[in-house]
């Protein structure tokens, strides 16, 4: 998943036979009768236009990256890793452009027989989110111009441009197996398209505020979305009918707009969400039960997640805290303090490690078992706005307000 603050998705190949792409589309269109059965620095203050401190403490660190992509002309706010080709990544920015590029290859360098660097133009506003299809063959870019564009990865060629209501796209997510993409807008709408044909498969309508984040369930048979501002709801949608099958809203759930949501990879229905006032809730999207509201943050929660290996959860906030929660007792297990606000968080695919991106230009690796910072990754000269990890967990990709995207080795 890309910029759209959604949860990680993972499948057990031994338990469920994967459907071919055509079968996935047929299933979501209602042709599956079995549907419904049971992811040492120098500190300086940066002031905003109004003269007030915006919370950025720029830390000058040694450049730990082994690759730096400098193709963008403005802030890089979205990054994604190809799930099949570990050397292929993508980045999107405030320059209204996205790029497909190869790790270890200089920008636009010609290399016979290999994918080069492709500038993906056509958006007229910031590319706020992007992501690769499960097969790795397509890339979708979501723009604040209201367009979702689908690209051929091998050639960097535009396949089709998908349109919705015209509202700015805030996030996108791919079906965990097929060529189906979902995106949410700032004007309350969610669209599901067949990326192979460009057809609108479904429109999910019901939120009364910006749809700030969303994802497919791990089995791909439902879509989960959350609403920002006055909406403050979590909704579960049936992709076949477009109907909302479950809504969680009101006490004891969130009291302010929800920024982020993540689902447990086991598919049992556990969800964690974070809101603009610092609230964190753990709920179940199958039963609609709210297990608890977790207090501890003093500012907006920007990212949340549930560990796939331990009964732990984590939340990252603009208050500079990464909080670790015990899912059994719903109590705080630890607090990982940062020198400045956290913008994003990503989990290691197999280990109890969390990586945070911060306004000070650094990214950090935390061991959730001990709450200690294992490593700090330096190199950016401005705030890190997005972070993702390679499928094998060996490399990090970051995008920054300094206009670069950098690749780091998780372990030196």
Automatic annotation (TrEMBL):
Alphabetic keyword roster: Cytoplasm, Repeat, WD repeat
Cell compartments where the protein resides: Cytoplasm
Pfam families reported in the protein's UniProt record: WD40
GO (cellular component) term, any one: cytoplasm
UniProt keyword Nucleotide-binding, yes or no: no
PROSITE patterns: WD_REPEATS_1, WD_REPEATS_2, WD_REPEATS_REGION
Name by which UniProt lists this protein: Uncharacterized protein
């Amino acid at each position: 998943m890309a910029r759209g603050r959604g949860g990680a998705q993972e499948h057990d190949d031994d338990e469920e036979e994967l459907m071919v792409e055509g079968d996935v589309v047929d299933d979501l269109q209602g042709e599956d009768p079995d549907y419904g059965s049971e992811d040492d620095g120098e500190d300086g203050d940066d002031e905003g236009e109004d003269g007030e401190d915006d919370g950025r403490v720029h830390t000058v660190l040694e450049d730990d990256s082994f690759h730096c992509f400098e193709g963008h002309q403005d802030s890089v706010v979205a990054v994604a890793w190809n799930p099949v080709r570990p050397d292929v990544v993508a980045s999107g920015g405030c320059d209204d452009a996205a790029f497909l590029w190869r790790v270890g290859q200089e920008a636009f360098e010609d290399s016979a027989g290999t994918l080069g660097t492709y500038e993906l133009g056509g958006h007229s506003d910031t590319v706020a989110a992007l992501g690769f299809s499960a097969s790795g063959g397509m890339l979708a870019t979501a723009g604040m111009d209201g367009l979702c564009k689908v690209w051929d990865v091998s050639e960097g060629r535009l396949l089709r441009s998908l349109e919705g209501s015209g509202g700015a796209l805030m996030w996108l997510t791919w079906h965990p197996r097929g060529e189906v993409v979902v995106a949410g807008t700032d004007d309350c709408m969610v669209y599901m398209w067949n990326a192979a044909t460009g057809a609108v498969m479904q429109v999910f309508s019901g939120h009364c505020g910006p749809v700030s984040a969303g994802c497919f369930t791990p089995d791909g048979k439902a879509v989960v979305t959350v609403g920002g501002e006055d909406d403050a709801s979590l909704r579960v949608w049936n992709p076949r009918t477009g109907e909302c099958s479950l809504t969680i809203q009101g006490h004891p759930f969130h009291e302010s707009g929800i920024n982020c949501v993540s689902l447990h990879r086991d598919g049992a229905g556990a969800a964690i969400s974070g809101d603009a006032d610092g609230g964190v809730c753990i709920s179940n999207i199958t039963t609609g039960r709210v297990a608890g509201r977790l207090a501890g943050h003093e500012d907006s929660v920007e990212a949340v997640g549930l560990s796939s290996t331990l009964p732990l959860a984590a939340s990252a906030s603009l208050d500079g805290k990464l909080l670790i929660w015990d899912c059994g007792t719903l109590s705080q297990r630890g607090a990982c303090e940062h020198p400045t606000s956290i913008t994003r968080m990503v989990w290691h695919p197999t280990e109890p490690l969390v990586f945070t991106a911060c306004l000070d230009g650094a990214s950090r690796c935390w061991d959730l078992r001990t709450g200690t910072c294992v490593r700090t990754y330096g190199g950016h000269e401005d705030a890190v706005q997005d972070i993702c990890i390679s499928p094998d967990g060996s490399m990090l990709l970051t995008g920054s307000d300094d206009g670069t995207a950098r690749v780091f080795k998780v372990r030196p």
